[in-house]
Write a structure and sequence with these properties.
Pfam families: DPBB_1 (PF03330). This is Expansin-like EG45 domain-containing protein. One of its GO terms (cellular component) is apoplast. By secondary structure, the protein is an alpha/beta fold. The chain has one domain: RlpA-like domain (Barwin-like endoglucanases). It is 19% helix and 28% strand. A six-stranded mixed beta barrel has the order 1-5-2-4-3-6. The chain is globular. Bound molecules: 2-acetamido-2-deoxy-beta-D-glucopyranose (NAG). 2-acetamido-2-deoxy-beta-D-glucopyranose binds next to β3 and β4.
Length: 131
């Protein structure tokens, strides 16, 4: 058996993992919610978690508490999309925000403003997200 240096092996794993995560962009839609609802959350109670937040109608799977999601608006630049991506943290569930409204997640208004423009009340945009 050939002896492969450990560092080479780790490098290969790193490259494969990177390629894999690029391939795993998941399509969906995102709505938004306002600042007065950032706290409290199911995951963190009254502890604020910043302004870049995500909620899903179900916690678990891609939406575990604390999971960071890189969300990219898919569509025309400059409207509805700004062309930017934003990393949001899963902090809460939002019963009723899911399939009934056809959104994969609701993100905080601050996060939404980074990726989408202009804000339309009740609006949502097509997105890709990567864990
Ligand atoms: C988020 O995704 C976008 C689009 O794929 C990429 O350009 C950007 O570097 C990513 N940001 C982070 C922090 O991973």
């Amino acid at each position: 058996m050939a002896i492969i240096p450990k560092s080479t092996f780790l490098l290969i794993i790193g490259v494969v993992t990177t390629l894999f995560s690029i391939a795993l962009a998941i399509p969906g839609t995102a709505g938004f919610y306002r600042k007065e609802y950032y706290v409290p959350t199911v995951c963190y109670g009254k502890k604020p978690q910043g302004n870049l937040l995500a909620t899903s109608d179900h916690l678990g799977g891609d939406f575990n508490c604390g999971t960071l999601l890189n969300v990219t608006c898919i569509g025309k630049v400059p409207s509805p999309c700004t062309g930017k991506s934003v990393v949001v943290k899963v902090v809460d569930n939002c019963p009723g925000c899911g399939p009934s409204e056809h959104v994969t997640m609701d993100i905080s208004e601050d996060a939404y403003r980074i990726i989408a423009n202009p804000i339309v009340v009740q609006g949502h945009v097509s997105i890709d997200y990567v864990k």
